[in-house]
Predict the structure of Isopentenyl-diphosphate delta-isomerase.
Amino acid sequence: MPEVLGQSGFADLRLVHNALPELNWDQLDTSCSFMGKQLSAPLMINALTGGHAEVRVINRELARAAAATGIGMAVGSQRAALEDPMVRDTFTIAREENPRGLLLANLSAFCTLEEALAAVDMVEADGIQLYLNVSQELTMREGEANFSGCLANIKQLVHNLPVPVLVKEIGCGMALETVAALAKAGVRYLDIGGYGGTNFTAIEGKRAGEINIPLEKWGLPTAISLLEALNAGMGISIVASGGLRTAEEAVKALTAGATLVAMAGPLLRVLMQEGPEGLVVYITEFITNLRRVMMLVGAQKPVELSQKPLVITGLVAEWLERRGIDINRYARR
Ligand SMILES: Cc1cc2nc3c(=O)[nH]c(=O)nc-3n(C[C@H](O)[C@H](O)[C@H](O)COP(=O)(O)O)c2cc1C
């Protein structure tokens, strides 16, 4: 699929314009709930950082922006704070700055129950993200080599943790079979983390000094992974992420059936380049644009989007058809 490689695949998903939305701008309501928390929009700042004294300020500003705009947030991997209590405050600051908002803990899907409990406790998390990153580990010089036992570990974490578990990929996506296996293990929340955005295989390859990074284009484009995941079974809330960059793409993901969308890399870049106020402006404008696109397809609330037509074209359509997924039902709603 050469044209899709390097991209998230959202260009192949098309929304259908509604010239008669019969809605008043003031009636539009982007709010939703996720893991029992109310959000101003179905949007989350995905896991980014923590663990070094100098990044405390980044989590502080991300959390302030999440609180100011009413969206969710996940902290970065808390491994460092489990090993060194001195850097705990680089994570706990996120809860201090946003005492009532949706905040997710974050660790590798290989963590133990004790570690997961400590991570949740550390930030008084509403849930925990457990990440899968096989491609990144294989590219890292010091990376993991044993990936067996992960599903059994996730299963015992889901059954023993007091908060919801969200399993996420970080840029290679999840196929229908992976999602079905996770659902069978009891997982009810996923972030498909598809290909097309921040690319850890490429980042780690460069870090390791590789000239031609052999697997830098490995992964399921986000649009493909999202639709595979949505066709894997019932009862799972799916977060769409990985190269999701515009409000129109967010509406495409929500129309496909995602519950929430998440972004990481772009939000960090905005914070670094435009400062904390710039980040709040960026998120606020993103939500305004979300409303605009909702008006243009005639949806008053995010939940109504999943009844609106979505035309799946090009290589994404070809892929999904070959995988046995009926794409016409999306176009003819
Ligand atoms: C600087 C940086 C650090 C990240 N650290 C983590 C992490 O600790 N844990 C994790 O699950 N994901 C981590 N991610 C992955 C993101 O949460 C997200 O899954 C990925 O970047 C794809 O989204 P994007 O294309 O919007 O950036 C990190 C991403 C970036 C850019």
User: Anything to note?
Assistant: Residues 46-49, 76-77, 106, 129, 131, 168, 170-171, 193, 197-198, 241-243, 263-265, 268 surround flavin mononucleotide (CB under 6 Å). The chain has 14 helices and twelve strands.
